[in-house]
């Protein structure tokens, strides 16, 4: 994708998805962190249903640690990967209490030191809660950016690096949300709706498929 196509694509995305925000429900940095951990290989809609019940009485790391792993697993069972997610949430909660004074750390390296927190989750929390410039590459961002041609990479980390080069820094966080919503609404995994896509004339995927 050349510079003009890139700029035009970003302009269209900014107009179509102006004000786009996370679909996850949360009130605090800790709730956001837990919700993002739960969202791995799970829909945001399902996560929101689960956290609506979980956060009624377990919305802080201290309260979360009042649950045994088995008890937490029952709350989050429908999110999938519930055993590892429960273990990660309790381990992260313990570290937040013991190492960070009960508060989710702002430092990127400290965030990544928490169980269950990888590059994507740390970027989401950094961007959404701490208002830092970051691009979190989930399955939607990975798919859409590589189809469009904003990136040409075979891993999320390489995709993140290329997006940071392609997109002005002050727009990183916004662009993250634009790409997610475009993936949800138009650029679907199995059957992308290229015929109704406002980016089709700039998209590498559409050109290759001769849509």
The main sheet comes to:
none
For the secondary structure, the number of strands is 0
How many separate helices?
Answer: 12
| Integer average pLDDT | 95
Bulk shape: elongated
- What is the terminal-to-terminal distance? 17 Å
The succession of helices and strands, N to C, reads HHHHHHHHHHHH
Helix-residue proportion = 55-70%
Unreliable spans are none
Percent of sequence in beta strands:
under 5%
Radius of gyration from the CA trace?
Answer: 18 Å
Label the structural class. mainly alpha
Note down, in words, how this protein is organized.
- This protein is mainly α.
- The protein contains 12 helices and no strands.
- The longest helix is centred in the middle third of the chain and has 18 residues, at 82-99.
- It starts with a helix and ends with a helix.
- The model has no long low-confidence stretch (mean pLDDT 95).
Describe the structure concisely.
The protein is mainly alpha-helical. It has helices at residues 3-16, 29-38, 44-57, 61-64, 69-76, 82-99, 108-112, 119-128, 139-148, 156-166, 172-185, 204-209.
């Amino acid at each position: 994708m050349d510079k003009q196509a890139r700029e035009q694509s970003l302009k269209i995305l900014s107009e179509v998805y102006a004000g786009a925000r996370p679909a996850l429900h949360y009130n605090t940095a800790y709730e956001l962190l837990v919700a993002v951990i739960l969202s791995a290989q799970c829909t945001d809609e399902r996560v929101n249903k689960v956290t609506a019940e979980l956060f009624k009485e377990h919305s802080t790391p201290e309260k979360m640690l009042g649950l045994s792993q088995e008890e937490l697993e029952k709350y989050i069972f429908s999110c999938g990967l519930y055993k590892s997610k429960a273990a990660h949430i309790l381990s992260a909660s313990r570290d937040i209490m013991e190492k960070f004074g009960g508060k989710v750390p702002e430092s990127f390296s400290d965030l990544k030191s928490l169980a269950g927190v990888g590059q994507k989750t740390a970027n989401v929390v950094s961007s959404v809660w701490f208002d830092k410039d970051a691009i979190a590459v989930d399955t939607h961002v990975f798919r859409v950016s590589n189809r469009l041609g904003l990136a040409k990479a075979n891993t999320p980390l390489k995709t993140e690096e290329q997006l940071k080069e392609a997109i002005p820094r002050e727009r990183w966080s916004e662009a993250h949300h634009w790409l997610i919503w475009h993936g949800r609404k138009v650029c679907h995994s199995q059957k992308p709706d290229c015929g109704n896509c406002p980016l089709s004339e700039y998209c590498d995927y559409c050109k290759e498929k001769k849509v």
